[in-house]
## 1
Amino acid sequence: MSHALSCSYAPPCPGCPRFGDDALDAVALERLSDFSKQHGVPEIEVVTGEGFGYRHRVRLSVRRVGETTGIGIFEEGSHRLVSIPECPVHHPAIERVLGRLLPLLEQHGVEPYDEAAHRGVLRAVQLAVERTTNRVQLVFVVRDR
């Protein structure tokens, strides 16, 4: 299986383990096909896409990374944040909001959650793009009364 595309965040970002693969693993595809035949479901249809900008919904953790606030995904099996400010699979509207959000969080002193100290306010953000308008719903996941 070759990799037609690559991502500057992988590894350590575990978000898209098959990113850049131009075909499904033959053994996995055969297993899926056998499973569908066994259970009387239609043959598996493989659908591929461009590989960029398709993710319309994402939930990202917010943590302190060095001296700045980072927004991203945890490294596999850990709580080490991989900051992914320009993820190639996020819809462009998500990237625009994140690009404006990070400076605002810093400017207004919003304290990211700290795992070790169990303090800080902002744990995560969830963004969802409305497909017809490209408007973004932004939800803050906070630790506060």
## 2
Amino acid sequence: MKIDIHGHFTPRAYYEELETLPGVTVDRRPGGISFLYRHGLQWLPFNEAMFDADHQLRDMDRKQIDIRILSLSTPSVYLFEPKQRITVCRAMNDLIIDRVAKDPSRFRAFATLPLPDVEASLIELERVRHAAGIVGITIGSNMDGLPLSSPSLEPLWQALNALKMPVFEHPMIPVFADAMDEFTLPMRVGFFYDTSLAMSRMIYAGVFERYPDFPFVVAHTGACFIDLMERLDSGFLRYPDCQKFITKRPSEYAKRLYYDTCSFFPPLIMMAQQYFGTDRILFGTDYPFIDQDDKHVRELPLSESDKALILGGNAFSMLNLKPHQG
């Protein structure tokens, strides 16, 4: 079974809501990729095909993907004003639940929470967690600037840990994106930096020490995070500030996390596989923003049994999936 852990849900209604945000303009290009701009900078790509509800299935059939785990992408709902954030979040979760219900053998979903409002997020978590097809939640690498290591998020981590609910991290535009004012660098570079910063903060802040029981998936094969292992461990061994909230080297916590294959870069995927283990790697396509199939996994110098685990076996176990749901 082939399971895509990183496939995005992109309803037209979501993009229409994003267009209402201050500073957002639209560059529509008939027949090609269009863009949302924010404060004059290229922000989010889109095309008409991805708004077609059945395009997902056609894409999956073409790539021989059995199940795709849908999730809302950047910028999630974090940029909306508090009341609108809750409204948009509930609407998007209802839409994603309805989409899964139409093809329950092909889709599951990560729900979205109206963060950084933790109280509202706990209410929404309770509302959606029993819905058919919901297998976890998705969370951004920052929430309109609030880091994932913020003490204000402790009740959320506690709840997710008690439920053993999987969490899928996806990068957001970093807070320093104004310094990346050309070449779509906020997405090309900023995404990877922000994921790496988020994971470093979470580990040093002791989130995974206090709450070890919920699976956590890091997008884009950990971004730049694997390269930082030696430096993070060195910080723990040398600096008191890096020892305040953890009792083990950061690499020990990193080895308990999961990493998707959406770097699409075989040397990095192999580094992750060798360092973290085959059972920590999950296949992803980053649909619809990257038109990838499973070639980047099939061509890895690994055994067929290892490839089968990466392409679906690991996700099936981690998400506790059943062959047919709903």
